[in-house]
Amino acid sequence: MKYALYRYTCKRCGLSLTRIELDELQEKLRDQVKHEKTKPFQKEKRRKEYLDWYLSKKDKK
Q1: Residues 25, 31: Cα–Cα separation, whole Å
Q2: Is the Cβ–Cβ distance between 26 and 15 less than 8 Å?
Q3: Which of its termini does the chain have fewer beta carbons within 10 Å around, N or C?
Q4: How far is Cα 56 from Cα 44, in angstroms, rounded to an integer?
Q5: Which DSSP symbol is given to 10?
Q6: Residue 9: helix, strand or coil by DSSP?
Q7: Could you read off the pLDDT of 27-61 as tens digits, one per residue?
Q8: How far, in Å, CA of 27 to CA of 37, rounded?
Q9: Measured between alpha carbons, how far is 48 from 41 in angstroms, rounded to an integer?
């Protein structure tokens, strides 16, 4: 049985992948981008929580 393997090639860098490899790479990159987008929000959330904690500590004194 003969299988036709379609290869996708990047015109810019010449990277050649099968459809399965391409899907895996896209999923990996999508996860990285999602993680990078949430990073600043997490940092800001930590700052706000610390500020709330710090201010509440002063109120108790």
Answers
A1: 10
A2: no
A3: N
A4: 18
A5: -
A6: strand
A7: 999 988 888 777 788 888 899 999 998 888 765 55
A8: 15
A9: 11
Sequence-separated (6 or more) residues with CB below 8 Å from residue 22: 8
Give the C-alpha separation, 20 to 5, whole Å: 11
Residue 23: CA count within 13 A, CB half-sphere = 3
User: Given pLDDT bands bounded at 50, 70 and 90, which one contains residue 1?
Assistant: very low
Q: What is the pLDDT of residue 24?
A: 94
| Cβ–Cβ < 8 Å for 7, 17 | yes
Query: Which DSSP category does 1 fall into?
Result: -
Write out the DSSP string of 47-61: HHHHHHHHHHHHHH-
